[in-house]
Amino acid sequence: MKRAVKGSADLLQTLRDIRAVPVIGMMLILGGGVSFFVGSSYQASMPEFAADLGQAKGTTLYFMLLAADSVGAPIASVLLETTRLLRPRASART
Fold first, then answer.
1. What is the domain extent for residue 21?
2. pLDDT per residue over 54-72, tens digit each?
3. Cα–Cα distance, 67 to 46 (Å, whole number)
């Protein structure tokens, strides 16, 4: 049986639970930071960025610019996971 959502009380409890798992907090900060600094204008500004590089939309180099962006995210994810750069540190709390 599902319990009722309590609104802000559930939000505060979720934040308390997240604090116990630092990796989740780090991913939330990372995702929030990216959306704050990059935002949704990223894809919309890509044709203008390509034009600044001397390439028109629809050219092969414009496609390579978009493909590099698409391939970079999974590669970065695999590298971060395999090198353990974002591994949680042991806390002094016991």
1. 1-38
2. 777 667 777 887 888 788 8
3. 12
